[in-house]
Design goal:
mainly alpha
């Protein structure tokens, strides 16, 4: 069974939790950047989306 979750939903939830827990580290900054990026859909959307897809695929191949 495959479960698909929108990147905007996933990063939105992570951003909410980071802000709520007052996490002010590098990981929180990356999460907030990615949330803003995916919601804005800028011209850099293609390369960054490809990078995230490649990272997700490599994590899936680790099994």
């Amino acid at each position: 069974m495959v479960l698909s979750i929108s990147a905007v939903l996933l990063f939105g939830l992570a951003a909410y939790l980071a802000v709520r827990s007052k996490a002010a580290n590098g990981a929180a900054a990356v999460v907030l950047f990615l949330f803003g990026f995916f919601t804005a859909g800028t011209g850099a959307y293609g390369p960054i989306r490809n990078l995230c897809a490649a990272l997700a695929a490599s994590l899936a191949d680790l099994r």
